[in-house]
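Subject: sequence -> structure tokens, single chain

Hey, anyone have a minute? Need the predicted structure for the following. Not urgent.
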Amino acid sequence: MTDAPRLAGTIVDALRWRRDHEPDAVALVSPDGAETTCRQWYDRALVAAYGLVARGVRPGDPVLLVADDRHWSDFAVSYVGVLLAGGVAVPVPVALYPAIAATPQPLLGAVTVRHGELQVPDGPWPVVADLDLAGHPEAPSPLPELHGSDPAEISFTAGTEGPPKAVLSSHDTLTVRYTAEESPSQPGDGSGYLLVLPFGNTFAHTVFIDAMQTPGARLYVAGGFRPEDFVDRLCRAPIEVTFLVPAMVEALLRTPDLPWDKAGPVEVVCVSGAPVRAEALAYLGQVLPHATVVNSYCSTEAWPAGTDWAYTPDEAVNAGRPWECREVRVIAGDGTIAAPGDTGRVQLRTRGVRARRTVALSGRLPALGPDAVAAWVGTDDLGFLDDHGRLHLIGRRGDVFTVGGLQIAPAQLEAVLLRHPAVRDAVVLPSPHPSLGAIPVALVVPSGEVTRRELLRVVIDEVGADRAPRAVYFVPAVPRSAAGKVVRADAAELLARVRRVEAALRDEATVVSYLAGVVAELVNGVEAPDGWTNFFEHGGDSLAALRLCRRIKSDYGVAVQAREVAENPALRDLAEVVTEQLRRAEDR
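Reply:
Had a minute. Here:
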């Protein structure tokens, strides 16, 4: 790799170097095939910076960049424009923006930039369309001089276990790959990167930053993921490097007749984002026999620290060794460093590099001082180091629960279930228990004929009866984020709904009791005395009927119309309507 970008202290320096040394090289290819050269990228970003400065953006001001999978190329221009203006870029998926805009004490000095046709709700900051930034071809004032220690961006954690956390990075943190020796699994010059990960995902943004700084790199943005479209891209474009999360690999594995034999010369497939099954990595090695399959691990808070491992059939490691200049350790429950083989909380750091900092989205952003250099960053992941210093991930700290004194890692049980050929997806959750504290329960998406008894027997054979799920429920889909991570709060709600449905199918009286409670909430606070109670005589009206239908849809997953409430006002008759809908759904 050419050494000029290694001297860069900011991302802007790296892209400027590409503009000067390879101006006509294509750097970005959008989902519709439109190409952006290094010169076009930088020059458009410069105009965007002028537009931001003209609208009052000053060094250190946060600029929220609202986009989705369709707007990567437009976002790329705005992102660099924010940095050129001295601002702090805040990439925000459009679905996340309302929650950020509702912050009681919002960030001071912020501006929101929306991309393309996206509309964003009113918030505490002025909103400008990205195209409107192009109206200032000349600088209204000199652009600020940037330094590596300046704040550069705010990224967000996945938010699958609670509200997303905001994490602040400096320029030199984002450019560390080009100021230190590179990991051998990183792509070389001129690589074609294929990005199918969703906008706003930490792994996706890391790929975007790396491609921006790599001489000769061409970033193909797919605009979303479907197994058929992914393989088609590999067949049509010169892709050397691609990036996936485990859920995407599982989807590829379950999709028959993909034309892998027509795929181009893929050299590296990097899988990250969660623990991944050895069988899934083996599948990638089989369908792309000339590629190195790399299992990579990092976190939003700890990046650029991380680990990776090049998969080999005889040695399955789900995280691997630290990258160059990075370190990993495992902390036991008593705060000491865990011995090899003992499970604890994973910590990461990068030597000589300013660590990221979790910040509140209110007031002014803090400075990233020298005290943050080489700091250990705790993750919410549990794992252990083996005798060779390789990291093995167990699961998320918030996911692990105790059953009668035994620690249960859902990811391990899910991996066993997913190996069954008739299982498309699965998630294991804790369910309260009066004596054990909790018991594991599995939600399974079947892809063929399989019984609950068969699945329980398979898991018991592998992990033992004490650790195996105590119940299995079949569901149409497992709730996952855009990056493929299980949204466990939604999964818990799904489990409650499935249990309600099964209870209703066993005994219609449970539906009558449910309706009586809901009617009391919606009408007058007085529970209906029996199943013959008339909804309207009890105080209901057309508006309450609509609310009742929405509750039934939310709690049971079936659609009851307001007219059906009118035709069946007695709660017992309405319960028959709900139960019949549930039976029809079960038959389908």
